[in-house]
Sequence to fold (135 residues):
Amino acid sequence: MTDIQGPARIGKPPVLKHVGEDKKPVCELTIIFLNYRKSKSDEENPIDRGFWARVSVWGKFAEPVSKMYSVGDKIFIADGNMEQESFMPKDADEADGEVKMLKVDCNLVFPWVPDLESLRFNERKGKQKAAGTTD
Fold:
């Protein structure tokens, strides 16, 4: 496995699943890791190139990720482990051969901060104590 982190763009809608006997949540994303290159014809607008990967976000962050992001959103993948996965598509025959895909398991996905226009935090539910006060 290879550690990976970096900016990416979501290519397909996030899918939330619950797997195993304990119904552990996992959000599956298809993303392209971004690798900007200068365009010879337009130096102010870099070309958005990179490589595709299937990302699985496990545990308590799976549901928020599935609700927060959509196709085209730029994100930052943190703390990812990447490996190559091979599979045979359902409609393929043996002559087509296996398809290779990069698979990333990660725990943290953040908004791509340079593109944020605004950020709003919701108030926590439940009773909150103000700093320095006692009941």
In short: Helices lie at 62-68. The chain is about 5% helix and 50% strand. The first strand starts at residue 2 and ends at 10.
